[in-house]
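Query structure, 680 tokens:
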């Protein structure tokens, strides 16, 4: 960035080419005095100017800080809003819930707005009481191991440090989490507790959504009790039935310059043609796939190793970081939606927010074509949420289908059960719903308004930047399964990556990506022992860890014991990175390689069984060697079973009771000696 408004401080010096006639007018003393006075004046002028500029420097710095909008309080006053719904969102769900709550407000004679905490100064919360019948709602997702989402990090930091008086603030919190994770809904719980500590008044109990169960139902159940509590608190009543209100208006562009049309870019127009660092979620780097090979020798699944070239991108990563990739939807699904709705998918359009004051001008980059929106911007493969069904119901011409859609979107027990079985468990995406409800033919622009954004997919990086500074490696398994309706559903990102074949110059091998930093880090001292547990594709970060330990050893560093517990189904089917691991073991970098083949014998053997088998050695590494433990892979079963195994080992060899052993392992986590990189 170039500095703006920076004055030139280069005073011109008078020319020495004075005429003899001018010299004769002054004596040497005159010249000396004039020079002295001029010098003093010049020094005083610039010295004074610098002194004046010093107090302005903090202001300049605050402008350069993350760009924030004007105060959300002023915005609410200007637009007549009294409810603000902040969202901490990593995958878009919390933002979606926030939008739904802000739209609900009109039914109660209130006006709401959804707000990204990253765009505002949250210290203004202390002023919310200036607005009549005001309320702040927080839809907060928890990311990773109890962390705030990226857009809520500043808010989280402020809450930790704040000593503000929030006694005039009324609030409610709905948390989005997953019970398979150790720190279930940590962010929602923290925000709820901390706001109360700062004096704010909770007007409805904390909601805890569980994505391992039915997050949508959890939200609806909380929401249907939340609004009556709001009505009671403010003495207002519902003004009528829930109604469909369009948030965006359609503008079709018949005569448009195609250079002004988005073709899949996430932020800046033409950013894929004219790449400029730094690269992040809004400005991904187009990396060339230089290698894409199948890792498994047999079986029905397709496990793959990809290498992305990041040369000249200035992207830096560490072992343990995640790479995010932006996939594209299958063109056949996109075409089928276009055919069913009788739409020309190449129509160029914009969806413009009817609320001119909103920061969100469009639901996705506009202008663009329906084809681009359905391919790159919208999630068409996940089962739609109930609010989408409710809004679409009006377009079903068959009374039975309309009633079915409305019922599934209702809060009645029968409706919830129907939604769970017919949509969630049957894994019906929007195309399947359109196919199974022949009278449902919504306008494509309203459908595009309602569908959530297609999200980036995160993968644990399977390489070390010390060894591969110009490439990032991914290890993934393609997702493919048959649904209860007999349809074949395919994972968006893994099937898209599978088809990324390295070529010399075609776009078919380009992957939009960026790096997300992680807390999953090797010990600072290379001599510290490490115990790595990662079955299946959970081995990914450990390939990077072992590469790095090998590199450190080559540099002459003392490297501690490097122990791996890996698991797969069958030795001659899906033993990933077999040759590489054998080589590392031969070179003495990988000091222990323990592999569990779960299906090569009658009784299933998993990584936790091998840990139990080697329990004495495991305890010695933890207790005497101060080893760091790393677990990567499935959160629902494997990570929990492994943790329980560590409780048993600690209890047995540390002479502790079960509660003491649990506390011991929790302390290892707090100290950064037990790290998790898990997913469900």
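Result returned for the query:
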């Amino acid at each position: 960035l170039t500095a703006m408004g920076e004055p030139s401080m280069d005073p011109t010096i008078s020319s020495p080419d004075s005429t003899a006639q001018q010299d004769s007018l002054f004596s040497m003393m005159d010249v000396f005095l004039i020079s002295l006075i001029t010098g003093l004046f010049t020094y005083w002028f610039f010295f004074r100017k610098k002194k004046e500029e010093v107090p302005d420097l903090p202001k300049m710095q605050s402008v350069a800080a993350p760009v924030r909008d004007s105060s959300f309080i002023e915005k609410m006053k200007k637009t007549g809003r009294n409810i603000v719904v902040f969202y901490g969102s990593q995958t878009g769900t919390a933002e979606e819930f926030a939008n739904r709550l802000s739209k609900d407000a009109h039914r109660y004679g209130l006006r709401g707005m959804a707000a990204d905490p990253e765009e505002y100064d949250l210290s203004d919360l202390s002023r919310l009481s200036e607005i009549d019948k005001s309320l702040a709602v927080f839809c907060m997702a928890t990311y990773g191991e109890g962390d705030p989402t990226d857009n809520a990090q500043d808010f989280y930091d402020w809450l930790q440090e704040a000593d503000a008086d929030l006694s005039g603030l009324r609030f409610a919190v709905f948390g989005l989490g997953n019970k398979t994770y150790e720190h279930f809904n940590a962010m929602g719980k923290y925000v709820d507790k901390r706001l109360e500590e700062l004096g704010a008044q909770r007007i409805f109990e904390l909601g805890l959504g569980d994505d391992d169960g039915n997050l949508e139902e959890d939200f609806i159940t909380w929401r249907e009790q939340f609004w009556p509590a709001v009505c009671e608190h403010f003495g207002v009543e519902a003004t009528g039935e829930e109604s469909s209100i369009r948030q965006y208006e359609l503008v079709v562009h018949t005569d448009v310059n195609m250079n002004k049309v988005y073709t899949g870019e996430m932020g800046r127009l033409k950013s894929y043609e004219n790449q400029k660092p730094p690269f992040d979620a809004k400005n991904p780097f187009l990396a060339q796939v230089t290698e894409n090979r199948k890792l498994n020798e047999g079986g029905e699944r397709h496990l793959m190793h990809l290498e992305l070239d990041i040369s000249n991108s200035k992207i830096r990563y560490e072992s343990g970081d995640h790479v995010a990739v932006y996939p594209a939807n299958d063109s056949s699904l996109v075409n089928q939606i276009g055919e069913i709705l009788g739409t020309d998918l190449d129509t160029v359009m914009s969806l413009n927010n009817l609320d001119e004051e909103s920061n969100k001008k469009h639901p996705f980059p506009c202008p663009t074509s329906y084809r681009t929106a359905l391919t790159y911007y919208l999630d068409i493969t996940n089962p739609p949420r109930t609010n989408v069904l409710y809004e679409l119901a009006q377009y079903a011409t068959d009374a039975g289908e309309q009633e079915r859609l409305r019922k599934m979107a209702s809060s009645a027990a029968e409706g919830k059960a129907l939604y769970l079985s017919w949509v969630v468990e049957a894994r019906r995406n929007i195309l399947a719903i359109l196919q199974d409800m022949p009278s449902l033919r919504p306008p494509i622009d309203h459908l595009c308004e309602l569908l959530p954004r297609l999200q980036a997919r995160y993968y644990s990086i399977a390489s070390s930047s010390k060894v591969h500074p110009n490439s990032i490696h991914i290890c993934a398994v393609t997702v493919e399964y048959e649904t209860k309706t007999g349809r074949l559903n395919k994972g968006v990102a893994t099937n898209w990556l599978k088809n990324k074949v390295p070529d010399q110059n075609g776009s078919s091998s380009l992957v939009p990506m960026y790096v997300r930093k992680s807390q999953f880090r090797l010990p600072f001292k290379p001599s510290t022992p490490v115990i790595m547990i990662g079955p299946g594709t959970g081995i990914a970060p450990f390939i990077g860890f072992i590469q790095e330990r090998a590199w450190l050893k080559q540099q002459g560093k003392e490297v501690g014991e490097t122990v791996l517990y890996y698991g797969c189904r069958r030795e001659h089917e899906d033993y990933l990175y077999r040759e590489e691991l054998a080589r590392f073991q031969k070179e003495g970098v990988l000091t222990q390689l323990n592999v569990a083949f779960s299906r090569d014998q009658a009784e299933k053997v998993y990584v936790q069984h091998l840990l139990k088998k080697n329990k004495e050695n495991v305890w010695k590494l933890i207790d005497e060697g101060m080893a760091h433990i790393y677990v990567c892979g499935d959160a629902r079963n494997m990570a929990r079973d492994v943790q329980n195994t560590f409780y048993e080992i600690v209890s047995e060899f540390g002479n502790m009771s079960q509660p003491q052993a649990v506390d011991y392992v929790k302390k290892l986590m707090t100290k950064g000696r037990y790290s998790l990189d898990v997913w469900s």
